[in-house]
Amino acid sequence: MKHNIIAILLSTLALSACAKTTNETHSNSTAQKTNEKNDLELQQRIKTLVEKTKKNMIFVQGGTFMMGDFGELVNKGKLPFDGDAHSKPLHKVTLDSYSLNAYKSSYEDLDTYSAATGRPKVMDDPDIIDKRYKDAAAGLNWYQARDYCQWLGKQLNVPMDLPTEAQWEYAARNRGQQVVYPTDNGKVEYGKNFNSYQQQKDFSRKVSGDAIILVSQLGAYQPTPLGFYDLINENLEWVADWYAPDYYSKSPEKNPKGPETGTAKVLRSTNTRDEYMIRTAFGFTFSRMFKEPDLKDHDFEDYYKTSVRCAANNTKPLF
């Protein structure tokens, strides 16, 4: 009888262990399938981003131009367009050919990068998550912008980075022409070639539920003659250069890259909705702004209006 009881107990334990093993195997199999599915989805997202980037990279033939406020060349009395000393003096710059993205990068683009690298999402704050419209220009600091462009280049097997300030201006001026505003026709036509304040409020309310924080709307209007969208507005754009107010007076002619060191990085484009300020101060093809590249603990407040447009430093068309 005793032997029978022991046999029954051993049999029960064996069955229990077998059931546990079966459950663990099933659980592991389910987890593996989930991981495989997630991996496949991520690979598809990366592929989609790569294909979109290939399509949107615009080749810019290099050349020579006079960089900075060119008002002295075209205005009566040789008056400058703006009163900023740092947009002067006008100076000669010669650039190699390169490519530049037609668009600023969106939150959807940056989220793919974050998923692929394991880095935190940019602007991933519960208090403002409704402002992270997937197709809006992503807000990020300078280091995030640079790292994203370099990562994207690795996916395309192309040397990509932030554009230099000279590259940005040369493209905005249609290869260095005397273009005052980086729009489809070189003019500011409020509500026609960029959003009016009311149009922006209406769009923001539509996609986020309110219009307190304006949400950028990319590609809504005609591009510049070279094919670039939203150079005049829909968020500032980081460039590679450190900022120095007197850099133009000492800039080299060939492929200038800015000062070797500094405390702030240069920004181009604008994020204002004030037509007067765009016409008179911030919207020029040569307008310069600057900001510290990474202010800790103030990401949303300081960086939701600073975005990125990646460049490729290849002297021949990419694809």
UniProtKB/TrEMBL annotation:
Alphabetical list of Gene3D superfamilies matching this protein: paralog of FGE (formylglycine-generating enzyme)
PROSITE patterns reported in the protein's UniProt record: PROKAR_LIPOPROTEIN
Alphabetized InterPro entries for the sequence: CTDL_fold (IPR016187), Sulfatase_Mod_Factor_Kinase (IPR051043), SUMF_dom (IPR005532), SUMF_sf (IPR042095)
Record-level Gene Ontology MF annotations: formylglycine-generating oxidase activity
Signal sequence, start to end: 1-19
Keyword Signal appears in the UniProt entry: yes
Keywords per UniProt: Signal
Domain of life: Bacteria
Record-annotated Sulfatase-modifying factor enzyme-like domain positions: 55-287
Name of this protein: SUMF1/EgtB/PvdO family nonheme iron enzyme
Organism: Acinetobacter nematophilus
